[in-house]
């Protein structure tokens, strides 16, 4: 999922450089959403690993 967030970020940067503001805005929003989801899943996985190790 982090890979897709980075790909949308690259698309947003390229679209911004070439002047496509709407596409850049949409790609940036998608990158932010995917990054937050990946971060939440990472924290949940980390927490689950600590709980499982202590049992």
Q: What's a concise summary of this model?
A:
By secondary structure, the protein is mainly alpha-helical.
Note down, in words, how this protein is organized.
Helix content is 91%, strand content 0%. It is built from two helices and no strands. It has helices at residues 2-17, 21-54. Helix 1 (2-17) packs antiparallel against helix 2 (21-54). The two termini are 29 Å apart.
**What would the principal axes of the Cα set say about the shape?**
rod-shaped
Low-confidence stretches: none
How many strands, what sense, and barrel or not for the largest sheet? none
Distance between the termini: 29 Å
Average residue pLDDT:
91
Number of helices: 2
Range of strand content: under 5%
Cα Rg: 16 Å
Say how many strands there are: 0
Order of helices and strands: HH
Helix percent band: over 70%
Secondary structure class reads: mainly alpha
What's the topology here?
Blueprint: H1 2-17, H2 21-54
List descriptors.
rod-shaped, 55 residues, 2 helices, mainly alpha, 91% helix
